[in-house]
Amino acid sequence: MTVNDVDFIPYRNFMRIASVALKSLMDGKNLEARDGYKKALEFYQFDANSYCNLGYAEDELGNKEKAFEALYRAIELEPFHIDANHNLGVLYKKYGEYSKAIPFYNNAIVSGGHAPHTFSGRGICQENLDLLEGALEDYSQAIKVDSMNPDRYINRASIYTKMNRYDLAIDDYSIAISLEPNPERYHCRAYAYYIIGQIKEAEDDYRNAASILYPEFEPSKLVSVANIDNLEEYVPLVNRMINAGLSPYFKVVDKNVFIIPMI
Questions:
Q1: What is the reported pTM?
Q2: How does pLDDT run across 221-238, given as a tens digit for each residue?
Q3: Backbone Cα Rg of the chain
């Protein structure tokens, strides 16, 4: 056995154990992955990927401080490690520390991390810090990379709404609905329609939302009431719905739009 053989034995053990740990991580077995990476790193302590994956596993197991420790070790070894920087951004965002998250998202993007969730993650941080122009740019970049994901358009539409650019918000809500209709998206578009005075379109969207929530009711059996002055008059009807085993659904925007399934 040569000197070189002796030098490589620990690294070979590291590689063998780390490869098993990676498979466990990919299979969602975070506890096994965590234990595997910790064991592997006993043989070789200079692999940024392993520390990054260890940090991910620790976070999935709810170990916040250990997750941060492992990820910081990864970027100590490799300062512009894309995944480690991205995951640190995710962690800080997860715990509401948006200003701390942004520099790590920046590092990930500068290093070539152009995944849509990296742009969206930074966009969410900027939105929460009221940096609307930056958030708008990030959400637009996420759409360029992942144009078939309806959530990307919902994110950008929320910024347009905050900017009072309701026509552009409606365009994005419409794309999201065309990709995957759901009640929440109809509600959001209905609100934008209502604000710009397109009441009929707003009512149609609320009716579409209600018909999804109540598939047993035909759209023609859904009542739309506009300009209600006294919502209290409808409390008995809502109570009847509850007593009948129905979960009443209605949407009110400044007491102007009210939709209920008829009994």
A1: 0.79
A2: 555 554 455 555 656 655
A3: 25
